[in-house]
Amino acid sequence: MSNFTVYIAITDHGFGHAARTASIAGQLQKLLPAVKLILVTTAPKWLLECYIDGDFSYRQRGFDVGVVQADSLKMDLDATRSKWQKIIDNQAEIIAEEVAFCREQQVDLVFADAPPLAVLIAKQLGVPCWMSGNFGWDFIYRDWGREFTAIADWISDCYGQCDRLFRVPLHESMSRFPAIEDVGLTGGDPKYSLDVLREKFNLIQPKERTILLTFGGLSLDAIPYQNIDRFPNHQFITLDRQAPELPNLVKALDLAVRPVDFMPLCDRVVSKPGYSTYAEALKLQIPIVSLTRSGFAEAEIILTGMQDYGYHQIINPDDFFGSDWDFLNSPLQPPRLTAKIKTDGNLTIASSIVAYFKDK
Predict the structure, then answer these.
(1) Is the pLDDT of residue 329 over 60?
(2) What DSSP state is assigned to residue 331?
(3) pLDDT of 281
(4) Phi and psi torsions of 249, nearest 5°
(5) What CA–CA distance (Å, rounded) separates 79 from 87?
């Protein structure tokens, strides 16, 4: 096949969207080494490099807001609305700049998760826009009331012009999209030898006494690490650079090592509701202990999915921030369904892109 170029636009929200989209891009590169990947995101380049082994172009642009947050649980709705309105008001200028760039780069396909402006860029460019995801931002904003109705309507209209959506598990209906294909879970896979990780990070406890604490790129404010002292025979792993030095807390600060790389070493993952962490844990069948998250409509949907398909435990923020972490002594709940969740999303989406190029 001739060389093809894919312009990949990633939502401006945390690290999860970047991780799962870069995982798809990495799989595409393995299937089609000659493909040119342009990753368009405000997520740091080092994060993308953790999921894409080969070369790619990095274009630091943000086309949506996601949710403005102080940490993984605290949302600023006023700032979110203000930033969105600025993007909508300046959409013509943003689209024109990106279309000019894409023509210069001879872009053949726009792929996105899931900035609505990506659809309008593709339409003006004259190429298809494909998306993947488990929710649309309009779904999140409609839950916030009338002040967000106009923004949600604008986003829904954009999504309604998308050519193809790969809908991953743990999803809302996403019925605004005209062409939907259900696929399996997306996200990263472990890439390091477990023995290498044990030696590098001095992981001395067995799997049943090793716990991963991970709360996404925004982390959490004031994690009560002092509670770890109550579990001296356990070892906890965190990627939080602000964490204190404690005898049984491993601070894994190598940027090349991701939460998913540690999961096979752990008895469970303590996290907040988020598709990417859930997806990676569910793929590996690692139990999840999850905080609840109010005000974010996606949270209830993915918490339901977690309960359906994985061993789990749900705790409220008071159990995490205000208690002695006695929840770690409670038994995990088994999955409610016997059916297994599909895990082939990366390969299915990447193969579909290759097939599209073969037909061109």
Answers:
(1) yes
(2) P
(3) 97
(4) -115, 115
(5) 13
- The closest alpha carbon to 84, from 133, 130, 137, belongs to 137
pTM over 0.85: yes
202: burial class by Cβ within 10 Å (0-12, 13-18, 19+)?
exposed
Say how far apart CA 87 and CA 137 lie, in whole Å. 14
In this predicted structure, the answer to whether residue 222 has a pLDDT above a threshold of 80 is no
CB distance 58 to 48 below 8 Å: yes
248-252 contacts at long range (C-beta below 8 A, 24 or more positions apart): 249/225, 250/201, 250/202, 250/203, 252/201
Give the C-alpha separation, 356 to 69, whole Å. 38
Q: Rounded distance, CA 181 to CA 298, Å?
A: 20
Task: Give the whole-angstrom CA distance, residue 18 versus residue 36.
Answer: 18
Report the pLDDT value the prediction gives residue 215, as an integer from 0 to 100: 84
The answer to whether the CB of 176 falls within 8 A of the CB of 160 is yes
CB atoms under 10 Å from CB of 198, counted, come to 14
Which stretches within the chain are classed as H helix?
16-31, 45-49, 77-89, 91-105, 117-125, 137-142, 149-159, 194-201, 259-262, 275-284, 297-309, 317-321, 345-358
Q: Tell which residue, 272, 211, 268, has the closest CA to residue 75.
A: 272
Q: Which of 269, 310, 268, 274 is nearest to 292 (CA)?
A: 274
Which residue type sits at 121?
Answer: I
State how far the alpha carbon of 283 is from the alpha carbons of 161, 174, 275, 292, in Å. 31, 23, 12, 21
